Amino acid sequence: MSSFKYIVATAASLTLLAGCTDPAYLTGGENQNAGRGAAIGAASGAVIGNLVAGPGNRTGGALLGAAAGAIVGGAIGADLDRQAAELNQDFTNSEIDVINTGSELIVRMPQDILFAVDSDQVNSGLRADLFVLANSLNQYPQSRVTITGHTDNTGSAAYNQDLSERRAVEVSAILIQGGVNGTRLNAVGAGEDQPLASNLTEEGRAQNRRVDIRIQPTEA
User: Across-strand partners of 189?
Assistant: First the structure.
């Protein structure tokens, strides 16, 4: 193994080990993704540092890049853990899912709690939870947000596409009412093209009817 590859592997292994020794990581607690983010940041930072330093100082550049990447990646992972925990605590509707992938959050709201059949007007009972989400986005401003509407395959594909777009725009508008800068938001419709489950059963169709709000961290 070359010295550069060894540095990358070592940096990633050490930062991942540091994260895994945190009791919260072991128990799936609030900081479960901080170590993972540090490891990813270290590896990518080592590559970038190596390229920037050039042939004369590849080892030093890789080490500096790994250290900087670990700090940034660990901070992003820790912020995601905190934001997910806060959202889970503050949402009032238990059907809202907060999915923490380690690199982003997906807030999944079933369509049936958000909208009446064939409507693009958000149910009044869910507006409060959308304002909870808006407040969270304001507290963690270093992210871009994609709001995607999804439907099942009932009705025509063209109608479902249009409905999913209008619903995504409506959710985006409420987040803006909650103070979120509109330049951070991207509202799109996926129609019936990205099902989570089979559309052959009512249970599957219910899973497919949803709005996914994807929160992707960006560096300051």
Answer: 149
